[in-house]
Amino acid sequence: MPDQKTVAVLVGSLRKDSLSRKVAQAIATLAPDTLRFDFVDIGSVSHFNQDLEATPPADWVAFRDRVAAADAVLFVTPEYNRSIPGVLKNALDVGSRPYGHSVFNGKPAGIVSVSPGAIGGFGANHHLRQILAFLNMPPLQQPEAYVGNAGSLIDNEGNVTVERTKQFLVSYGKAFADWIGKIAA
Length: 185
What we know:
The protein is an alpha/beta fold. The chain has a single domain, classed as 3-Layer(aba) Sandwich (Rossmann fold). The protein has five helices and five strands, in the order βαβαβαβαβα. The protein starts with a strand and ends with a helix. The relative contact order is 0.19.
């Protein structure tokens, strides 16, 4: 598909069967076929240390190359202590360095926070928005995506079991595709 856009997907939870991963996979399945989703493993990105920048570790280079090749980035994350998980913050730090050479610069972003609780990761969602402002990543504003009570919305196989949630994820994927088309044009 010639006008297909690649979306790097960064999932803030490392757990294989995490609710965040299941929601990310559901979005990828339900989104328009104008988007191709590349799930980028952030768990293998070693800790950022500026002393290593002169000769960056191979995992940093691989991560930066994958994100740089994408047209957009979708962040799907749980909330840890009213913020984003450390592994996601580390990936953002590695990708944004060295200063002035961020692989995130100007890329349209989508933010989906996921929680087994009712608040839906509101704190993580908004902390991430604050970081993206500095990284010059315009995030999709509407619809906002706080997926609360996620354990009751998706089964063990990753199927969305609540029709209203499925329709929301379809509309989110469409809005995100439209947003990417506007920003990446």
